[in-house]
Amino acid sequence: MFQTDHYTCPHCRLVFRARTDDIFRHGDVRACPHCHTRVQIDLPRPPLPLETAPYGPSLAERVADYLEAGGEIPGRHPYFDGICLARVDGAFLYGYADDSATAFSPGDSSIIRRFEDRAGFVAWVAAQSDDSLNRGEDTGLRPGDMGITRRPLEEAVGRDPD
DSSP 3-state assignment of 74? Predict the structure, then answer.
């Protein structure tokens, strides 16, 4: 899903920022703090082309470690509704999550990919790229939504050492 931490009011041109625990998502309706006009957030699609370089085994291993330690990518927050990586009941999951207590429930129809073993998950993540997770017919994404990219992965687990 397209999201940002700041937005410009089209009426008064004030740039207003989201609170620390919040973001602006495409389609949200917010009130401008200056002119109090109701503003529908209209974000452009991410620029194309997307990166096609595979994430590789090093990043994939660190992502698996992070999820096994209880992390989620990206970290969810109030009003979260988007693509998430998580580990639930021993399985690695990729799919739509919301702001409920657990990212996914067993048998949840919002799960796009499910991996019962670490090796399969690591191999899958290592072979992915920003492009492969966001384009094509087998992404499992809703029309107009954005999947996981390298950025939130590296924000969670750090960049590959050079």
Answer: coil
Q: Find the mean pLDDT for residues 77-105.
A: 77
One domain for residues 35 and 65: no
Same domain for 87 and 11: no
- The answer to whether residue 46 is domain-embedded is no
Inter-residue contact 78 to 72 (CB < 8 Å): no
* pLDDT tens digits, 54-75: 999 999 999 999 999 999 888 7
The whole-chain average pLDDT of the chain stands at 82
Whether residue 64 lies inside any domain: the answer is yes
Give the CA radius of gyration of the chain: 17
Domain that holds residue 23: 3-40
Beta-strand ranges (E) seen in the chain are 3-4, 6-8, 15-17, 24-25, 29-31, 38-40, 81-88, 91-98, 111-115
The number of domains in the chain is 2
Residue with tokens 């937005």: 7
Residue 47 has pLDDT above 60, yes or no: no
pLDDT at residue 100, as a whole number: 65
